[in-house]
Amino acid sequence: MTDWQSRLEAVAAERKIPGCVLGILHGDDVDVYATGIINKNTGVAVTPDTLFQIGSITKVWTATVVMMLVDEGVVDLDEPVVTYLPELKLADADVTKAVTLRDLLSHRSGIGGDHFVDTGRGDDCLEKFVETLGDIGQEHDLGATFSYCNTGYSVVGRVIEKVTGKVYDQVLRERLFGPLGLTHTNTLPEEALLFTTAVGHMKLPGNDEEQPTPVWLLPRSSGPAGVINARAADLLAFAKFHLDDGKASDGTQLLSVASVKQMLQPQIEVPDKYTLGDRWGLGWILFDWDGHPAYGHDGTTFGQRTYMRIVPEAKLAVCLFTNGGEQHKAFDTLCREVVQEIAGVEKPRTPGLPDAPPELDLSHYAGAFGRLNLEMALDVDGGSLVGTIKSSSAIKEVIPNDDEDTKLVAKPVDKSLFLAWMDEAPDPIPFVFFDFEGDTPTRVHFGARAMTRR
After folding, report:
1. At 42, phi and psi to the nearest 5?
2. Counting C-beta atoms within 10 Å of the first and last residue's C-beta, which end of the chain has fewer, N or C?
3. 30, 272, 414 from 388: Cα distances, Å
4. Which strands, in side-by-side order, build the sheet including 292-300?
5. What distances in angstroms separate CA 146 from CA 29, 280, 286, 383, one per listed residue?
6. pLDDT of residue 396
7. Known catalytic residue: 106?
8. Could you give the CA distance from residue 208 to residue 234 in angstroms, rounded to a whole number?
9. pLDDT at site 295
């Protein structure tokens, strides 16, 4: 048996992670390991009870609440959202009338996905957020493909408020935090301050080493998309709740077996199956690991990343909380080792470049692609695509940056899959070109989002 404490310490040191926590649930057994510090400015040690931001893993909690409301007959996944939220107005009037909760929960709505706007700290923040959507257009036609959509989850959160008559945060406390006995889980900074809480780290202009982030939390209007804070044991308790078919530890059936299973039914294929997963369910990312089903979610906030994977046939869940460094590499290593040792399952790897590059006319791939707050221009340079990515997200406005465009070099693996090195980073990310017209792709998928040819 691996000494997971020692292994965590070794991987954290190798990947220059200030502080991290590894949690493993196997059957009824829960083990949590911690190492490092919560903040380089304070040097306070990470403990198994340290709170980290789980980021977008929050979306699964939001989807779970929706399914509770489905069980109660309060909402229907396939009714238009305007049934519950008549004030919703998007740039596309037809999408406004037709988009459903199922579309939003599975990221197939096509709505511009990264509309991060701070509408204040008040309990009306989601109401005000919905009022800002009138100019938000489509990345693709409704239901045409998958493109990750934070915007949609904030809308879902407002639907929850409208049909329950309660603030989103209160609904989570009453329906999940309390019934599941989650004493170290919350959504608001004044709640997180009552615990030892991690701070993210990132490279800031003028610094060669990562520093604590100047902003700790996403806007409250992003709550349903990503602002839960939790310790590892609480996140694993949430995983066990789903593994136990919707039952709390005291045997209470909080979510119907049918709804638990429906959340794991594929709703849309993901063009890029290498960055996150193969398909999307209702909230959950769905994986096929060499014939073994798995599911989970990732979460990214300011300098923090949290990961969770569940292998149901082994009753196994593994999570990793990190606050800087080479976070994804650390997770890939530790998750691979945990699922191999405990479940006997091999986690797939992203293909590398072939020995001989495929014979492609790269001029078909050149051009401009865009989505909300992001524009990319690609040109051909020998056997590679080279280009720049320009971001205009509101998130950039609250984190200091040098305002330089991101440069990339992408090399083909096959007709669809390219590996792209960003700003001379040592490791590439997948670019998947799709929706070809002849030999010309009309879209590219990377970072879990679709960009359309301009």
Report:
1. -115, -30
2. N
3. 45, 20, 22
4. 29-36, 19-26, 316-322, 305-311, 292-300, 285-289, 279-280, 268-269
5. 36, 8, 13, 29
6. 58
7. no
8. 35
9. 98
pLDDT averaged per 10 residues, the chain (length 454): 97 98 98 98 98 98 99 98 98 98 98 96 98 97 98 98 98 98 98 98 90 95 98 98 98 98 98 96 97 97 98 98 97 98 95 96 98 96 96 68 82 98 84 98 97 96
Kindly provide the residue ranges of all beta strands, DSSP E only, lying in 207-269, ordered along the sequence: 211-212, 229-230, 268-269
Residue 266 buriedness (CB in 10 A; 0-12 / 13-18 / 19+): middle
Cα distance from N-terminal residue to C-terminal residue, the chain:
53
Q: How far apart are CA 316 and CA 302, in angstroms?
A: 28
The pTM of this model reads: 0.97
Q: Which amino acid is at 269?
A: E
Annotated catalytic residue, options 6, 56, 249, 392:
56
- Judge contact between 339 and 289, C-beta under 8 A: yes
The token pair that represents 338 in the structure block: 């945990």
**Using CB atoms within 10 A of its CB, is residue 7 exposed (0-12), middle (13-18) or buried (19+)?**
middle
E strand or H helix at 6: helix 4-14
Side-chain-side CA neighbours of 296 within 13 Å: the count stands at 26
Q: Taking the alpha carbons of 258, 177, 448, 33 in that order, is the dihedral positive or negative?
A: negative
Q: What is the pLDDT of residue 392?
A: 84
Residue 205: name the closest of 373, 399, 405, 39 by CA.
Answer: 399
Structure confidence at residue 406 (pLDDT): 92
- The CB density around residue 137, as the number of other CB atoms within 10 Å, is 13
Rg for the chain, CA atoms, rounded: 21
* Secondary structure (3-state) at 191: helix
The H-or-E segment that residue 64 falls in is helix 58-71
DSSP letters along 308-377, please? EEEEGGGTEEEEEEE-SSSHHHHHHHHHHHHIIIII--PPP------SS-----GGGT-EEEEETTEEEE
- DSSP strand E in 145-202: where? 185-186, 201-202
Residues 169 and 194 sit within 8 Å (Cβ to Cβ):
no
Q: Return the number of other C-beta atoms located less than 10 Å from residue 83's C-beta.
A: 14
CB 99 within 8 A of CB 136: no
d(C-alpha 217, C-alpha 228), whole Å: 10
